[in-house]
Write a structure and sequence with these properties.
The protein is α+β, with helices and mostly antiparallel strands. Helix content is 40%, strand content 19%. The protein is built from 8 helices and 9 strands. The longest helix has 23 residues.
Length: 230
């Protein structure tokens, strides 16, 4: 955990700097160097702007620069990323469970709120929710010490025919795709089994909690399952 001085330093990060730290984490910036162009695409800016921001984050010891390539998160940056992810996922859970927003349409609101809600209010929300371990999309919520539950998940399109599994996570931020999955019952906690897979035609026939759907691999991309789990 960061000490008091580090907590004060990271709490002064601007919203745009927080977005870069979170984007680096999402792109695998803990394990590897993320290219500047890829990071710029994720954040929605031009590569020169991303380069300037990475230099600022490096001065704050949040990232480690690799000249001409990109950057990766340092230890301090990883802690900050997990803090931000925790905030976002708690707020998404609050928006869905308490305010009744649809799970496919809460991401952007949580993005706005995460930069402005105080730690005291966030802790109160977490207690109100009963300290949830997962958000509405099945993503694990880091605990207050930055620990994250690790599970062995596979993409639904890679599940062998006849094997039972439970949908564990939905990894997508597109409202339309998530709304389609919700309508089809492809939501966290649903029991699934691939009944038929015709690779040549790219056709899947899937049993979803007793209902049958027919789709292609693109329609399943982003749905992760845990084999045998209930």
């Amino acid at each position: 955990m960061p000490n008091g001085r580090e907590k004060r330093a990271t709490s002064r990060l601007s919203g745009s700097r927080e977005d870069y730290v979170k984007a680096l984490y999402a792109l695998g910036g803990v394990e590897r160097v993320v290219g500047t162009r890829l990071l710029a695409q994720r954040v929605g800016v031009r590569p020169p702007s991303a380069t300037l921001m990475l230099r600022r984050l490096a001065r704050l010891r949040l990232v480690v620069l690799v000249p001409g390539v990109g950057a990766r998160l340092g230890a301090k940056g990883r802690r900050e990323a997990l803090r931000l992810i925790r905030r976002h996922r708690i707020l998404e859970t609050f928006l869905v469970r308490v305010l009744g927003l649809d799970w496919s349409d809460c991401h952007e609101d949580a993005e706005i709120l995460e930069h402005h809600v105080s730690d005291r209010v966030l802790d109160a929300i977490d207690r109100l929710l009963g300290t949830p371990a997962f958000d509405p999309h099945g993503h694990p919520i880091p605990d207050a010490d930055g620990h994250v539950v690790v599970r062995e998940l596979i993409p639904l399109e890679q599940l062998a025919v006849g094997v039972a599994a439970t949908i564990a996570e939905i990894r997508d931020e597109d409202r339309g795709r998530m709304a389609h999955w919700e309508e089809a019952g492809l939501v966290p906690g649903a029991r699934v089994r691939v009944r038929v897979h015709r690779p040549d035609d790219d056709v899947f026939v899937i049993d979803v909690s007793g209902n049958e759907i027919v789709t292609g691999s693109e329609g399943l991309r982003g749905v992760l399952v845990q084999r045998g789990a209930r």
